[in-house]
Write a structure and sequence with these properties.
10 strands; single chain; alpha/beta; Rossmann fold; binds pyridoxal-5'-phosphate; 330 residues
Length: 330
């Protein structure tokens, strides 16, 4: 049974021409567009809003009263889940990879602002976190709090349906048959776009190093999402750019810094250091190195992530005063 999605996200989002950026990169006018999923309307915005449209509908349909999820201390997904719970009058428990004494800034600060209960685990690996989330769900269940488990990054077939919606918007709004670039973290955004567009050839995911072997996950999640949407199995092979991770998930890279400054100074649009900055760095490299043609209609999905920009970790790096702290402790 399919459930009607909520529209917490306020989608559709704008699809904007990016001609000044496009000119810098040698695109023909009109070829480069930016899908502004950073402008979804709640919780400071970002790609997780579309996933939550579907996940929260499912939670409601099941009569759940507590959203439970987890992620890194500076997880955008966790912050957006906390905001969605607030909007719907649900409780929210978030299981975090960091420690209690993590700096109270960026997304962690917003988790508190939105009223989520935080559980710190110190977990480093995603399987440890997944275990801790499952334990929390069991605990809440035994106390009668009617928990609803949202997996890391919201990247289940239900969550990825949000990006089938986005793919439909892009197909309706963009001219030609654009190739779509997105950051690829837990894979749901990439998989949903592929499911919606019907062909892996249409979507390039820039791996940000959040999950090991993300290509395998996208390869299995895309057909599951297509099935959940009642669509045909997508054709082709997963397309991943893997050269933008740097020293690891969240590690600052010079290419991301250049991409952030270039987009800010040509379009007045702010990318983030962990996801969309690296994704744009992948697009820039593909264009400069000739893998992306000057007349190829191209849509860059701006997936948000703004709060990370204001954390102490990236301040000096972005301002050009030295290096940010290395890849651990995101
Ligand atoms: C700002 C931002 N962009 C992109 C992504 C990647 O999306 P996905 O996890 O669906 O691959 C995330 C995931 O956390 C994110 O927070």
């Amino acid at each position: 049974m399919t459930i009607d999605a909520l529209n917490l996200s306020g989608a559709p989002t704008p699809l904007q021409r990016a001609d000044r950026l496009g000119r810098e990169l040698g695109f023909q006018p009109g070829a480069l567009m930016i899908k502004r999923d950073d402008l979804t309307v709640f919780g400071v915005g970002g790609n997780k809003a579309r996933k939550l449209d579907h996940l929260c509908a499912d939670a409601r349909n099941r009569g759940c009263r507590t959203l439970v999820t987890g992620g890194a201390v500076q997880s955008n997904h966790v912050r957006m889940t906390a905001a969605a719970a607030a909007m719907l009058g649900l409780e929210c428990v978030v299981v975090l990879g960091g420690r209690e004494d993590s700096p109270m800034e960026g997304n962690l600060l917003l988790d508190r602002v939105f009223g989520a209960r935080t559980v710190f685990t110190g977990a480093v690996y995603s399987d440890e976190l997944e275990e801790a989330i499952a334990e929390e769900v069991d605990r809440l269940d035994s106390r009668g709090e009617a928990p609803y488990l949202i997996p890391l990054g919201g990247s289940s077939p239900i969550g990825a349906l949000g990006y089938v919606d986005a793919a439909r918007e892009i197909a309706a709004e963009a001219s030609g048959a654009p190739v779509v670039y997105t950051a690829c973290g837990s894979g749901g955004t990439h998989a949903g776009l592929v499911a919606g567009l019907g062909d892996h050839a249409r979507v390039v995911g820039v791996d940000v190093g959040a999950v090991r072997d993300i290509g395998t996950k996208v390869a299995s999640l895309a057909p599951m999402t297509a099935a959940a949407a009642g669509m045909a199995e997508p054709r082709g092979e997963v397309r991943l750019v893997s050269g933008q991770i740097g020293r690891g998930y969240g590690a600052p890279t010079e290419a991301a810094r250049e991409a952030i400054l270039l987009v800010a100074r040509t379009e007045g649009i702010v990318l983030d250091p962990v996801y969309s900055g690296k994704a744009m760095a992948g697009l820039v490299a593909d264009r400069r190195e000739g893998r992306l043609g000057s007349d190829q209609p191209t849509v860059f999905v701006h997936t948000g992530g703004l709060p990370a920009l204001f954390t102490s970790r990236y301040r000096d790096w972005l301002a050009g005063n030295g290096n940010a702290v290395a890849s651990d402790g995101q």
